[in-house]
Amino acid sequence: MEKLIITCAISGAEVMKEHTPHIPYTIEETVKEAVEAYTAGASIIHLHVRHDDGTPTQSKARYKAVIEAIKARIPDVIIQPSTGGAVGMDNLTRLQPTELDIEMATLDCGTLNFGEDDIFVNTEKTIKAFAAAMYAKNIFPECECFEKGHVDTVLRLHKKGFIKAPLHFSFVLGVQGGMTGEARDFHFLKDSIPSDATFSVAGIGRYQMPLAELSIIHGGHVRVGLEDNIYIEKGVLAEGNKALVEKVALMAKKHDRAIATPEEARRILKIGGHKNA
Question: Rounded distance, CA 201 to CA 214, Å?
Answer without folding.
Answer: 9
